[in-house]
Known about the structure:
The complex is a heterodimer of chains A (about 325) and B (about 750). Chain A is built from 12 helices and 11 strands.
Amino acid sequence: MRSFSYSRPSALDEACQGAESVRFLAGGTNLIDLMKSDVERPAHVVDIKSLPMRDITDRPDGGLRLGALVTNADTAAHPLVTGRYPLLASAILAGASPQIRNMATNGGNLNQRTRCHYFYDPAMACNKRSPGTGCAARGGRNRIMAVLGTSDACIATFPSDMCIALAALNATVNLHGPQGERTVSVRDYHRLPGDTPWRDNVLQPGEIVTAIDLPPAPFGPHHTYLKIRDRQSFAFAIVSVAVGLQMEDGRIRRGSIALGGVGTKPWCVPEAEALLNGQPPSHSLFRDVAERLLHGAVADRDNAAKIRLAPRVIERALWQAAVGTPQSQTDKAIR
Amino acid sequence: MNVISTHIGQPVSRIDGVAKVTGQAKYAAEPHPPGMLYGVVVNSPIARGRIETIHDAEARQIPGVIEIMTHLNRPHAALFEKSYMDGLGVPGAPYRPLHDGEIHFNGQPVAVVFAETFEAAREAAMLVRVDYERWPHNANFEVALHQKYMPSKTRSNYVPPKPRGDAAAAYALSAVKTEGRYHLAPEHHNPMEMHATTVIVEDDGTFTVWDKTQGPQAVQAYLASALSLSKDQVRVRNPYVGGAFGSGLRAVYNVFLATLAAKMLKRAVRVTLTRPQMFTHAFRPEAVMDIALGASRDGTLQSMIVKGVTDTSRFEHNMENIVIWGLINYRCPNATADYKVAPRDTYTSSDMRAPGAATGVNLLEMAIDEMAYACGMDPLAFRLHNYSDIDAMHDMPLTSKALRDAMAQGAQHFGWHDRSMIPGSMRDGRELVGWGMATGIWDAMFSPTSARARLGQDGRLHIATAASDIGTGTYTILAQTAAEAFGMPLDRIDIELGDSALPECPTEGGSWTAASAGAAVWLACHSLRTKLFAALARCKNAPSWARQDSVKLEGGALHGMNENAQDSLSLSDALSLTGQDVLEAEETAKPGLRGKISQMRKARFTHSAVFCEVRVDPELGTVRVTRLVNAVAAGRIMNPKTAASQIRGAMVMATGMALHEDSLMDERVGQFMNHNFAEYHIPAHADIPDMDVLFVNEHDDEVSPLGVKGVGEIGMCGTAAAIANAIFHATGRRERNLPITLGA
């Protein structure tokens, strides 16, 4: 870890000063690790833990607002979340460990960085960490890397579970910055790497996530978060799927689906979701949806298995949602 | 020895447990001597080459930085002389930290920053830049296999395979044949406690070195020879060790670097490794085994051809006994084996829990399962059919082998007889259910060990030996042994371990500590007892009953017998009567203790039978281990509680071997890439079902003085194979590569 200055403002505007070399510190579960590993080298660390943004509140439209500083653990356990958004609670509980969820915040979860081995190792070429150095993950040990949304410059997987559910829920991210406030759909919040992989998301310098708004989710029991990973707890997804289906008379009125573990950002394909609309659940329908979701997937040295596995996980998740038997995060059996 | 079990064999909880959970137990990185400097190691990111320039000017600007030690400015030490040999090591030229500018492996230390705070040392370490001249290297195991060789000088513990019959001819003639290549990925030990050394410079200029090691006397000998010190000048302590699994068998680079710096700077120094740095030294070698088996139609093994290769570095020849286990454990008239090592430009692979057998037994037991199926036989019945009552490779009798009992009791407990033979035929809802089994075998070893027993004025019994308790329960079983041998309550016994100044004990490893240190403590206590009785007998002012033969030591006091049954004398009073402050005895236990040198004529092994249930989702390929039963035949069990913990811990580790642990080598740079606990997966709680451990009765008064065989490693052997075999039974698919991961 290198020397840095530290401040702990108590007002939002004070925090948003707008320098590139600033990092916001909340739970610290990701930033501190990255600083210890010499991956993040901020000149200034702005500790935002004294700011407000720590409530979960009702929205007039029947939705919820999640404060950016509410911890993942508190969010997953909040009665309004477990009651209205069990998909979100399930995805949060599928991630990390209780200790980490107790510290990690909702805003931090949006901004967590990839687990790419090469990103974490300063001796390795990594465009995301050190722009212009190249991508050592290509041709390297990349079993955990992305197969969708990759570029020549970067194949790093976006690691969050929570954000996959937020994408399926069509959540909105509220931002506050030197230019004032704005909102961004969570589906547009993260960026494809393209040739600028060092920019994970659309945040501008000084901009801060203040809250996440969830629109009403009329899914009832027809949702699931299915996460396939190398061990049954405390591992990042190889493939994960968040699904919400609005069912009506045995048909899918509207479906929403997002993939984790396979993309460089939470992976959503509106055309794939549209295939679900008005259709009764069927194997052929779900296979088509999976195919559309995986369209354009590219494997590198070690990660072709993700492309084979993902369609099966998608189909299973769609069935779990269709029949209203969401995946339990405590009973590890997949039904 | 006739041991009546008042204490030995009881499920006593760890006597060091409270010290550990309250933080009183001090580990290597915990002493904090005044003026201590923190050392942070800078490692090479290249696998082969030469250091051209070290840029440390910027790093030296960091306030608090005292010294940056490299091969250019380090002081001279005997280690750097051409003639130096590493007494701990394997054949070859041991790696010498900061010897010169040549890079032999990725992760090699190239500089150590010493600073007044850890933070300053770490920051400065990040600022050290090194230019390298890069040389070609090979870190690819497949490529290394083409260069496999047999070292001209073999490791001292290497057991050359001894062929019998004509395996090739018998294989050709066999009615049933199986053949396959089996593979095990490299694994890293990853004990919870990282390697660390704290060096204290004493007032008299001697060094007290707190090191995370499995052998304080071995590290003392290493430092003494490496730094030209006498043994009086360096004392190595490791009273508590947070796991090691073999990573602390050899001196790790931190101990030499810290001690060298302490000598150079004349200050206390601490060097701790990070988790990623735990991937820069010891690891279990990657292995392949080509196993061809031939059998007659009735399931009688006729031929066994085992060829194995493990990897080693370019500068040392690490060897493992991976190919011998089937030849020893199965009755098969024709058998042969071949072993080679494959060199690559990495650090030297090394012993990790059950070295050789964890690899060789598990891979072989997967092949045995295949053969059982090829013969259409139940895998347990097949093993019983080919059971050997002797060491079939050396044609030697065994001191004991209660494997038949282990198989029977394990099968009974598991409910094996309800198994259906056909793969894929057992289901639970959507999931396929698979039942698999395997047997395990590991050496029952003994090493000469000394121990001291001392009785003090406080009436407490003090036991000392230089053994290391790496978390296995050694403190506890030695206290139980002393309690038994001396007739003393457990709470009046103090055990002192982990100090090179204590009576000689070999490095902890090979599961020999319980048998060896246990025997030494037993002897020392008996000797002390004899001394006490003799001293009392000579003592004019002692009560007459206490001066006779008919006196016994029980419950921590002397008691009269027969007509003097009412008389007793406390040990403090007894000691006062003899006029001495302390009474002590030191003894050395040797294998031939019983007067029968049985070890020369009989082979000694621990055995086990492991049964496993898995559930596999046929579409997703996810595997859940839902039951594990391990029935172990390991002679006398000193403490069923700590012993069962050893077996369970090994079963968890073996579950990792079967399903999770996989050190991913990026051959382009020669580095293991997943060098942290987020990406190097060991089983989480959710991966581990309830595990049942059974110890079968095995009376063996030849294997070691106390009839103990040791239990630290047997739990690794067979468990991974039982899981792989259960996956076959569930799915009908043979996975011959461990670990079996998603997408396999």
